[in-house]
Design brief:
Elements: H1 2-11, H2 14-21, E1 26-30, E2 32-34, E3 48-50, H3 51-64, E4 66-67, H4 70-79, E5 86-92, H5 96-109, E6 114-117, H6 133-138, H7 141-148, H8 155-161, H9 180-188, E7 192-195, H10 208-226, E8 232-234, H11 242-250, E9 255-257, E10 276-277, H12 284-291
Helix pairs in contact: 1-12, 3-5
C-alpha cells in the first residue's frame, strides 16, 4: 500500500511540490552498500543497500539538490545562510562496502560525502554484532529495548544474552568494518571522516569516564590512524539526551548528528542535527518523497 501511495504522490507532483517548499537541508544517512548479487533476502536489518539502488538515489539527489560537504552545511548554518535545496551524504559504521562500492561511485561523479567511524572496530576481521544471523532471529521490539538500555548496546553482552558468543557462522558475504589503511586512503582523497564512538554503545546509558572514553578516545584513535582530527560526531543508534549532547559539545566537536528524521532548518541545533536514515528496502518513489520531507510513517532505526 505504501508504495502505491508514494507512487501516486510522485505522479501527481506532490513530491516535487514538497521539495520546492522545503526550507532546509537534507542529510542522508547510509550504512553499507553492496553489489546486488550479494544481497541476502534474510537480512532484516535494512542496513545493506543494493549498489544499483544507491546509484539511482545519488543520481536523483544530484539532479534535484546541490550536494555539499558537512563543512559547507555547518558553515551555512552558522552564518544563517539559506540551506534550501542542499543535501549532504553520510555513512555510519565505516563498512568495507562503502569504500569498495559507494565511495568510488561518488568520486566518479565528484560528489562529497562523510563517514562516521566506530574507532574500536577498525581493522577487526569480524562481523558487527547486529549483522549476526542469531541476532536477526532473536530481535523483537522488547528485546531491542532491553539490548539498548539494560545491556547498554554492548555487542558482547547482547550476544551472550542470546547464547551467541561463539564465532559467527558465514551465513552471507562478510559485512565488516573497513581496515584503517582503507579509511585513511579515502580520507586523503577527500572523504570527510567523523567519529561514531569507540565501541558503539548506547551513550545515554553510560556515565562519567565511560561516556568520555566513547567521545574522546574514539577521536584520538581515528586521528592516530588517519591523520585526521574528526570535527563531527554521530550518535550510536541515533540515541542521545541533553547530558550526552552537552558532553559531545564539551569534547570539542563542531557538530553531532542524530537519526531523528527531518530537515536541517535554519534554527537547527548543531549538536542534534537530524538525518534521514535510508533503509535498504526503500523504493525510488518513497526515497523521493522522504527527501522532500513527506513520510507516511516513521521507519525503525537499526
Amino acid at each position: 500500500m505504501a508504495s502505491l501511495v508514494y507512487g501516486a504522490m510522485r505522479a501527481t507532483g506532490l513530491t516535487s511540490l514538497g521539495r520546492r517548499l522545503s526550507n532546509g537541508a537534507v542529510v542522508l544517512c547510509y550504512h553499507d552498500v553492496v553489489p546486488d548479487a550479494e544481497i541476502d533476502d534474510g537480512d532484516a536489518s535494512g542496513l545493506h543497500l543494493p549498489l544499483s539502488a544507491f546509484e539511482r538515489q545519488i543520481r536523483f539527489a544530484a539532479e534535484h539538490f546541490r550536494i555539499v560537504t558537512l563543512d559547507t552545511c555547518l558553515d551555512r548554518l552558522a552564518r544563517g545562510t539559506s540551506l534550501r535545496g542542499t543535501l549532504a551524504i553520510t555513512f555510519d559504521d565505516a563498512y568495507e562496502g562503502v569504500f569498495k562500492h559507494a565511495w568510488p561511485f561518488l568520486q566518479r561523479l565528484g560528489i562529497p560525502a562523510a563517514v562516521f567511524v566506530i574507532a574500536g572496530a577498525g581493522g577487526r576481521d569480524e562481523a558487527f554484532w547486529w549483522d549476526r544471523g542469531e541476532v536477526s532471529r532473536a530481535v523483537t521490539p522488547e528485546s531491542r529495548r532491553r539490548w539498548l538500555t539494560e545491556l547498554h548496546g554492548e555487542g558482547a553482552a547482547i550476544l551472550r544474552s542470546i547464547g551467541a558468543d561463539a564465532p559467527p557462522r558465514a551465513e552471507h558475504p562478510p559485512r565488516r568494518a573497513a581496515p584503517w589503511a582503507t579509511i585513511a586512503c579515502a580520507a586523503r582523497a577527500g572523504l570527510t571522516v567523523g567519529a561514531h564512538s569507540l565501541t558503539h554503545r548506547s551513550l545515554p546509558t553510560l556515565e562519567g569516564s565511560e561516556l568520555r572514553r566513547e567521545l574522546v578516545e574514539s577521536r584520538d584513535l581515528i586521528t592516530q590512524h588517519t591523520g585526521i582530527l574528526p570535527q563531527y560526531f554521530a550518535y550510536p543508534y541515533g540515541l542521545w539526551d541533553d547530558r550526552v549532547r552537552r558532553a559531545v559539545q564539551a569534547a570539542g566537536y563542531r557538530a553531532a548528528f542524530t537519526l531523528d528524521r527531518g530537515e536541517v532548518s535554519p534554527q537547527a541545533d548543531p549538536w542534534t542535527i537530524p538525518r534521514l536514515n535510508v533503509p535498504s528496502g526503500i523504493g525510488d518513489a518513497a526515497f523521493e518523497a522522504w527527501t522532500a520531507g513527506m513520510y507516511l510513517r516513521r521507519q525503525e532505526i537499526a
